[in-house]
Amino acid sequence: MKIETIKSGVKISSPVIISYIALGIACGVVLYDAGMSVLGIGIMSLLVYAGAAQFLAASMIVLGASIPSVIIMVFFLNLRHVLMSASLSSFVKERSFGFISLFSHVLTDESYGLNYTKFREGNWSTDEAMAMSLSTYGTWVMSTVIGGAIGSQFQVNTVIMNYALIAMFACMLVLQFVSREHLIAGIVSAGTTVLLMVLFKHNISLVIATVFASFVGYYLEVRKNRHTKPEFEGSNEIE
Amino acid sequence: MNSQWTLIAGMAVVTYIPRLLPMLLLSKKEISPSFSRWMTYIPVSIFAALVASDIFFWNGSFNVNPGINIKLVPSILVFLVAYKTKSLLWSITIGLGGITLLWVLL
């Protein structure tokens, strides 16, 4: 990997890196308070690398939940990565098993959002994608360890730091409105998510809403194509 | 905590499988045009779900009172800025500025 590649990869991730430092420290603090050692926190961030799951684990342990119940909740929380992993698969066709093994491990909501947005813009190589993802990975591991080591002497406003990431996703969302059908899919997904979250109070709502809304968007597109051009074949020029 | 290694191992397995398998299996396959058309609706739906599951909730409950849920007003600004500038950095800056201001004021 060339230095230029690493530089351009890392440049893109700077907003995520800043948020990960703050959220990572906060996550390290709560994991330490939940009874984990600093070494354990570091190994967890290396092997699990999922912020929401690590926060969830900390709060469940404090509430006295059993280990299996935490693991099951984490599984459902992270099912959304199935869709992200599938969505990135078309960009890594040329890459080896080793590359995909590591690249998929460093897939988070944020790295997915950045990489998908950049791949779609074009001139974004898989090496840049890897460099970018590894920079946020390294940041997360180090920040959680620092959080665990300094303990609760350091206060982070997680509402505000988390909102930096939400603002980023909101912008990525707007960039995805490439057709009327995509706009409708977004609105359907948002509405369904809120409805299911209110009903079930569980993050699996995001996965169900995403699958449902993507089918709605796809159905509308198929219907439109059937009406406008009956002989449509390979009309993949929409983007 | 003695059981932290069991916890880490379990979490690592259930986190890695959903991340690895779809990318690994689908990248080795020829994907049908209709499947890849459907896949173009996944990102927009994911981002909408991530944003909606966050901004309409305050302390874990549905809340659309802009005086309490201070994420709502900045979010409108972020959408406008994102639409006008198409810039991640501007969106984050305006969003952070907005929510920090409300946090201090309210």
Automatic annotation (TrEMBL), chain A:
The keyword Membrane applies. It is found in: Cell membrane. The keyword Membrane applies. One of its GO terms (biological process) is L-valine transmembrane transport. Keywords: Cell membrane, Membrane, Transmembrane, Transmembrane helix, Transport. It is a multi-pass membrane protein. It holds the Pfam family AzlC. Signal peptide: none annotated. One of its GO terms (cellular component) is plasma membrane. InterPro entries: Brnchd-chn_aa_trnsp_permease (IPR011606). Its main location: membrane. The chain crosses the membrane at residues 12-32, 52-77, 134-154, 160-178, 183-200, 206-222. Belongs to the AzlC family. This is 4-azaleucine resistance probable transporter AzlC.
From TrEMBL, chain B:
The keyword Cell membrane does not apply. The keyword Phosphoprotein does not apply. The chain crosses the membrane at residues 6-26, 38-58, 64-83, 88-105. Keywords: Membrane, Transmembrane, Transmembrane helix. It comes from the Bacteria. It holds the Pfam family AzlD. This is Branched-chain amino acid transport protein. It comes from Marinilactibacillus piezotolerans.
